[in-house]
Each structure stands twice: as structure tokens, then as C-alpha cells.
């Protein structure tokens, strides 16, 4: 089974492939490709973030039409009142349907929130505040804030598994339910 991950970020690739291998052991061939999300580098809000994940899966399907599955992962933030929360949307597609899932959300501290709201991408803000380098390809904000009790990869893994539910239970989900057009 060939799975195309619509990112070359090792955190996203590893999360996707680990989740697929939990469902289909020894049957997964992974391919990572770089595609545009079609949304800003730092998506703001649920809709923009979800659309980025769907756009990534769609672009992967167009570039590698011979695969069995395409996965888009898009991290974003949502302001609720004075607070800013981070999360990600996952889009898993085959050639007929797309399944969506979302990670849990976590509140960003005021220092990070301020930088992101001023236009900085969350990963860059993490690196500035925590004095790290390229944290978005490592443990991410969630890892830095939880002392790696939850990492960016582990946060994504559960959401990928949840997005695979319709493919694990095809008899319960009509293929026409969600088209990836």
C-alpha cells in the first residue's frame, strides 16, 4: 500500500507512517513530497487550517496519482477571546473519498500568542522564545510546553488514526460521503 505524505517535514511524515503501520503492519510504502497548502504559512482559524490539509492531500494526489492514500497535515491557530490555541487538521484521502480529523487544541502562552498574532509563524516564535532551532521539525510548541510529554508527532499520530476510521470500517461509511474534488 503506497501512502503519500504531502510534506517533507519529518514530524508529519513519521506520524503518518507510524499510524498507517499500526493499522496495516508491514504493508506500507511511504513517500514524502513537498506541496503547497494554498493557505498562509500560519493558518488562522479552523476553516483555513482544515482547507490547508485538504489542499495538501489534493495536491499530492495530482502529483502522484498511482498511490493508494494521500495525507495532508496542517497546523493552525484559533483565537478565542484573548487566548490563542494551536491544533492541526488531518486529511486522509484515497481516490474516492476524504476523511478529516483534528488534533486536540492547547493554549499558547501570551509571549507566543503575541508573536503569532503579529504575523510570525508558530515554529519561528517557538524558536525565538525557547531559544531552539527548527522546533517545528522536532517536538513543536506542544513538546516544548509539555516537556515532551506530548510531542508534535504524538499529537498528530492520534489524529491520523482517527482520520483512518472510515477506511478501517468501509462498510459503515459510504464512499460518496466525502469527495475530494
From TrEMBL:
UniProt-listed Enzyme Commission number(s): 3.6.1.73
Name the UniProt record assigns to this protein: Probable inosine/xanthosine triphosphatase
Catalytic function, reaction form: ITP + H2O = IDP + phosphate + H(+); XTP + H2O = XDP + phosphate + H(+)
MF (Gene Ontology): ITPase activity; metal ion binding; nucleotide binding
Naturally occurring in which organism (per UniProt): Mangrovibacterium marinum
Family matches, as HAMAP family: Non_canon_purine_NTPase_YjjX
UniProt xrefs under SUPFAM superfamilies: ITPase-like
Domain named Non-canonical purine NTP phosphatase/PRRC1: residues: 6-168
Function: Phosphatase that hydrolyzes non-canonical purine nucleotides such as XTP and ITP to their respective diphosphate derivatives. Probably excludes non-canonical purines from DNA/RNA precursor pool, thus preventing their incorporation into DNA/RNA and avoiding chromosomal lesions.
Pfam families, sorted: NTPase_I-T
Cofactors required: Mn(2+); Mg(2+)
PANTHER family given in the database record: NON-CANONICAL PURINE NTP PHOSPHATASE_PRRC1 DOMAIN-CONTAINING PROTEIN, PTHR34699
Oligomeric form and interacting partners: Homodimer.
Alphabetically ordered keywords of this record: Hydrolase, Magnesium, Manganese, Metal-binding, Nucleotide metabolism, Nucleotide-binding
Entry note: cofactor: Binds 1 divalent metal cation per subunit; can use either Mg(2+) or Mn(2+).
InterPro entries: ITPase-like_fam, Non_canon_purine_NTPase, NTPase/PRRC1, YjjX_NTPase
Recorded family membership: Belongs to the YjjX NTPase family.
Top EC class of this enzyme: hydrolase
